[in-house]
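Appendix B, Record 12. Input sequence as logged:
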Amino acid sequence: MTVRIQPSADVSDQAEIGDGSSVWHLAQVREQAVLGQNCIIGRGAYVGTGVRMGDNCKLQNYALVYEPAVLEDGVFVGPAAVFTNDHYPRSISPDGSLKRGDDWEAVGVTCRTGSSIGARAVCVAPVTIGQWALVAAGSVVIADVPDYALVAGVPAKRVRWVGRAGVPLEDAGEGRWRCPQTQEMYIQDGERLRLQEN
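Logged structural output:
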């Protein structure tokens, strides 16, 4: 396998790009960013300085992932989604001077294994998106998202549970949920869900 980087992409020599990964037209990958194997960085997407991505991640066109975001294996970030990195953004200090990079504390978004962020969703750092969770398109996430939760709205709230296949789970009664696609079973404990061990 090889790394494929389009000529119009801007990839720092100090970035680490895993085997089998592709960086498409007009995308930018900054210094110290680390991409795992088989990642896809879509047209016009941005990967900030020091962002960490696991294997098999997909950033769709024009997704903006600002440092210090961490994406574990198999994370999907939809078109034009944005990960913020500042609690209280300002261009200038109270005295009117332009703020510098060390004038504020960067905070990041963490996406656990298999999670997906829908098109044009905004994740306001610091938040963690749980494993296999799904953020609906256009949502604004301002609080942590539990594993397997489907969240939607502004601000995003849990509306369903989803399984590893990404489809909504069916209520099997007594706090148990079934995936209609894989038949995997999940157990609910309050506002948490876990995969039932065989």
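The chain has a mean pLDDT of 96.
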